[in-house]
Amino acid sequence: MLKERVTMKPTPPKGALRFLRWFCREDYLEEIEGDLTELYEGHYDTSPFKAKWKFAGNVMRYFRPSFIKSFKTNPHLNPIAMFRHNFLMTYRSFKRYKRLFLINLFGLSTGMACALLIFLWVDNEMNIDKFFEKDDQLFQVMQNLHHTHGVETIEATPVPLAKGLAEEMPEIAFSVAVVPPTFNISKGVIAVEDTRVKATGQYVSGDFFNTFSYRLIRGNKNKILSNKNEVVISKALALKLFNSTESAIGKTINWKARDINRLCLVSGIFESPPSTATNHFDLLLSYELFQEINPGAGWGDSSPRTYVLLKPGTSIGQFNDKIGSFLKTKDKNSKATLFLQRYSDRYLYGLYENGVPAGGRIEYVRLFSIIAIFILLVACINFMSLSTARSLRKIKEVGIKKVVGARRGTLMMQYMGESVLMAFLSLVVAMLLVVLFLPHFNLVTGKQLSLNFDADLILVLLAITLFAGIVSGSYPALYISSFKPASTLKGRLDSSLGAIWARKGLVIFQFAVAVVLIVSVWVVYEQVKFVQSENLGYDRDHVIYFDTDNVNEDFMFKIRSIPGVLNAGGGNMVAGKPLGGTNGIHWEGKDQGDAPFFSRLWAGYNLIETLGMEMVAGQAFSEDFGSHNQIIFNETAIERMALKDPIGKMVKIDNSEMQIVGVAKDFHFESLYEEIKPCVIFLAPIIYAPKVSVKIRAGTENETIDKLRRIYQTHSPEEVFDFKFMDDDYQRLYASEKRVAILSRYFAGLAIVISGLGLFGLLAFTVEKRLKEIGIRKILGATDLGIIRLLSGDLTRMVLIAIIIALPLSYLIVTKWLDDFAYRIDLKWWYFIGAGLLTMLVAWLTVGTQMLKTVRINPAASLKNE
What we know:
With 866 residues, this protein is of the alpha+beta class. The protein folds into 4 domains: 2-74, no CATH class; 135-347, no CATH class; 363-531 and 735-862, no CATH class; 549-718, no CATH class. 50% of the residues lie in helices and 17% in strands. It contains 29 helices and 27 strands. Helix 19 (497-533) crosses helix 27 (784-818). The longest helix has 38 residues, at 408-445. The protein is elongated and about 100 Å long. It is found in: Cell membrane. It is a multi-pass membrane protein.
């Protein structure tokens, strides 16, 4: 059989020819066909497989000089020559179509800048509290309170819990109790000789530095805070007090907070927590000191936070099952269960519904990640539309290239390379935009973001650029390279129905995104306005508060005597920050199966009147009662307790008999994310009333605060007068929502602008395609208005389709966002119709100038063959 094949006219095998055609031009291959046959004639004495590759090698050696010369100069052979050729073609294209080039550059660079800014923000959010060495083993103990109305999840845990878990749970390596800086007893003044510094501290148990890997500069982490009179301070505080860290160890400082005035020995210095930490503090005090200040606090009193470091290999699921009923072993009547949550997850996953995680700030991370992708996609679609419109001017060019032998893959690479090059040029402009707008972006987001060109950022930049370049160039490359030479050389372009709807679909997608963003911005704005103006049940306007350790009647009398002061009272009332709570309240007729958790507030005389809180029964605290065993409940608490005629009745709280003297109308002592909870208000002794709230007459703020400052400094010369407006504290509860509202406005505006450019591109495509038709219609008597109606009809229909698609989608999105609020606005129909009308108006304005220019074209000029 082999001999029969050998006697046949020898022809080069197909594999060898394919191999050569990959390297050589077809016309050159035809010229040397005779030489190829002659070369092959010496290889029939071996197998076809060996002959094929032996022949290919001989051909390469025989034609090496010609091949090398061709390889160096032919862009189809040499990658460098190919790049140089494509770059030159792209440069000429950009130079010829300057307007389209600038529009593409603006759209892509703006979209990439938005994506990069959002990446910086998302990356920062995702790395909050992730800096601990044993992050995967560090957990916070949470408490689920089960009662007849559902399950409530709180961070506060019983005072002895950390010690109890460490003793009884072998899976725990270390356990620590922390009274965080948000508690009023953790704020005070440090005095060293004549230097006084306002400081924020937290009370921690002994294994704090074994549990949390904060860097300890000085001291032994196994021994510090072993004495209740010891204190550990930050490096920054040490420099303020002693001008160095070396000389601070062993020094004595005077710590004053409330009625505490104690000398403490500096036994350690730690590096201040990084900017990605949620918990910031200046000094650490012994947990034993906290227990000394709060004698008698037991398993029914929940104030501190408890954190544990689990041993490697511990199953979190099994451990949660084990500690679930731990509190029942300490208090058989307890209805609370425990579970662990990873410490670094608390920032992003901080909301619960019936004891189950229900999101939190992670929703904003996801939201802005999606917005970044959509903004970038809208910019890429804009490039596609303009490139497709421009392709009409290049149909003959494409036809000629195909006739002379250009392959579709080569054309695709050329146009894809053009889009990738545009993406890299846009990246340069985007980086300039990011540098320009990053300070303002930091101001809006409340962060200190910066461009650090590490490996992660470089990879992200390359990913964004390649994504933008490939997505932007994919459709134009496929579309342009598919032109048929015969049709293109005649100046005709027969677009398929699929190609037409692909272009229309791109525009519909752009404007659907714009409508969703407009609706979202509108709803977020209305919700933020609602929470800012909602009646909270107390008056926070023109109310300031400040801390002091030395409250007495003489001091309060002098404050109330200031002409601009309407009233003043002491307590711990801070918007959104109740001080712990308790489920250890017992009353006559209590259902033993129900153990509601009561948030706990303290109020001195006149505080309720100062804040304008209403009483629905009884009266506020008064010295006329002659006893400090007075309490006030809110309406929700009385309803949960099922008490009728509660005034004068006695309840038992932590083994103390207390008398109900009033019922306060429900007020929002937490944010509007939360429903109003049962609350008990105690008559505040000095230790629990460190904050003096002062109601100031409107218009007299400056002079009244100056007089307050002088009285304060005279009364407490060793303290620092540092006041805050209560309304500012309340507004900070919704800082995230405000930032979302502001950023959403910016991104919605950019999406509309970029979408308008895409619509402009499609209109340019339509006009160029129908230019002769428009000229003929004008010759036959068509009016300018008729031409405008003809051109705008199709575009109007596309925008209407986008609105119809976007409105139900936007309804679902904003409804899901509003579900996080216990108190929310009602969605109005005009939010959605208004967004649709605004989008339509923007679309008409975008294409209006182009239409006016089109209808003024001379029909004779439009009928010429170009």
